[in-house]
Amino acid sequence: MILVSIVTVNFKEETVTLDFLKSVYKNGGLVNFEVILVDNGCVSNNEEAFKARYPDLIYIQSEKNLGFAGGNNLGIQKASGKYVLLLNNDTEVTPNFLSILIAEMDNNPQIGLLSPLLLYFEDKSLIQYAGFSKMNYLTGRNKTVGKFSIDNGQYNNLSYETGFCHGAAMVCRRLDLEDVGLMEENYFLYYEEMDWCEKFKRNGKKIWFTGKVKIYHKESVSVGRESSLKTYFLTRNRMLFIRKNTSFLNQLIFSFYFFTIACPVLIFKYLISGKKKQIKWIGKGIMWNLKYPSNSSFLGFPNLTNS
């Protein structure tokens, strides 16, 4: 019986994924684990290439790009472990990370989802995530605890309840998934892990952070990386998250704020920064929510599932 199932999703980043696998197998410690790799949006089967280095790897090919939630869900359904750990393929782990995470879960049965301390890979002294504040559901905004602060060991021995987990690394019990269910796949990118946290909360579970484990994330420290894809899904899914998780009255108040303040401010920023092409994707993200029910599987972004 496998104790921990580690699920990761690769999307056209074979070299990065191989570095991830090397890190996991090197630092797994004495914990019994399996690694499930979902090759997302992959036309050619890469099973032999990956298994040549890691023969115990469980490889799943999806020719269709299922997004973050869909890719992870595919892996979760193959998991046989008591615990399921979702890890981004652009992370690298530290020694004995599994035993510490599982001990934290075992010591507190109320924990539904648990995320560790995340540091930027390119500057390993810089914190990316040490928890999230509670969500202001009227604005659809919250803050990341500790982001861009220097890691001086201030979180090393701390574990506490937090607003949300971070999608780059989060662990849960497979038994809880029978009640909570999988992630909502119609988010595709962004907000899906926050929505999942809301599901766990509604089932009486707590969302938890621990600084006892450090994981390095290769997401860039630099602000930017703007794209039509990012603008569209951040706009669309911020509204979608509120629609799925709040009352009708809250949705009305949020919509007033979003249409009269949040979106105009973002449009102004794009105008003065010379990124006018992004503006139409704000409108498209809004229009999706006005046209489609919150459970619609239509993504609204051209050719996305075939990319």
Which key features would you list for this structure?
about 300 residues, 9 helices, about 20% strand, alpha/beta, 2 domains, Spore Coat Polysaccharide Biosynthesis Protein SpsA, Chain A
How does this model look, in words?
The structure is a single chain. The protein is α/β, with parallel strands linked by helices. The protein folds into two domains: 214 residues, Alpha-Beta Complex (Spore Coat Polysaccharide Biosynthesis Protein SpsA, Chain A); 79 residues. The chain contains nine helices and ten strands. A five-stranded mixed beta sheet has the order 3-2-1-4-9, with helices on both faces.
Overall SS class: alpha/beta
Largest sheet: 5 strands, mixed
Structural Rg: 19 Å
- By CATH, the architecture of the largest domain is named Alpha-Beta Complex
Count of individual beta strands: 10
Q: Label the overall shape.
A: globular
Q: What order do the helices and strands come in, and which of them pair?
A:
Elements (H helix, E strand, L loop, with lengths): L3 E7 L3 H14 L5 E8 L6 H5 L6 E5 L4 H10 L6 E5 L3 E2 L4 H11 L3 E10 L2 E7 L29 E3 L7 E5 H7 L11 H11 L3 E12 L10 H18 L2 H25 L6 H13 L16
Parallel strand pairs: 1-2, 1-4, 2-3, 6-10
Antiparallel strand pairs: 4-9, 5-10, 6-7, 8-10
Helix pairs in contact: 6-7, 7-8, 7-9
